[in-house]
Amino acid sequence: MTTPSEPVPTLPPRFADASFVAKGGTSTVYRARTTDDARIVAVKVFHTDGKRFSQEVEAAARLVHVDGVVQVLDAGRLDDGRRFLVTDFFALGTVADQLESGRQFTVDEVCQLGARLGTTLDEVHRCDVVHGDVKPSNVLIDHEGRPWLTDFGTARAVGDSDPDGPTLTFTILYSAPEVLDGAAVGPASDQYALGLLLATLLLGEHPLLPFAAAGIGRLVDRIRDGVVPDLSLLNIPAPVAGAVMRACSTEPADRFADCAAFADALSP
Hints:
The longest helix is centred in the middle third of the chain and has 20 residues. It contains nine helices and nine strands. Strands 1-2-3-5-4 form a five-stranded antiparallel β-sheet, covered by helices on one side. It has a two-stranded antiparallel sheet with strand order 6-9. A two-stranded antiparallel ribbon has the order 7-8. Helix 3 runs antiparallel to helix 9. Helix content is 34%, strand content 16%. Strand 2 and strand 3 form a beta hairpin. With 268 residues, the chain is an alpha+beta fold.
């Protein structure tokens, strides 16, 4: 998300002290305080009344008891017709925010983050939901350093295809090869995206960043050929390097059986 400020919309009277946080391609996020219990929340206002709002609400209903998923606290429509969702506010922002601020994650931190996200994703998949867009900007960090998966606007049931396909370059950077070739997103592609997210944290930047200006065609070719370098050559412990590289295998059959197995491989 970009960060230039813009006018705050008129929110329902149950919210006060609203301020701009960030704007993305499909929504804008504001920080606000609830007037009944003074809870600090994030109000996500969608730019259009499209399917992302509906998919996020539907996914939230299925995942209400899944630890590690940011829960939807409230939803509604503004006076101007736009839809909004309310969640807890995470003052530390996303993993992407932390990377942009120059934070370097230790191997232990990456393993802890990956193990928790892997466990969360496994529970999500057991609820017959695929996230479909796992990436640093969709992982929030709480004050205890724990990651929380957010933005289920592209989520769908296991086995459902995405008629729109991956259209944004940033999403393509975390898309599995089979998805770019037309396969439906699934648990294996979520696992791939998580592995690539962890590789990005270990390397300090996305492995495809040097090719980002080369055009989508070249990016897709690189993804098909394999993205992650040999992490064991970078002073990363062999078990961690092997687990992350396995999750990022170009062939789904070469990855872990599920995200729970990936999480186990990252656990001490």
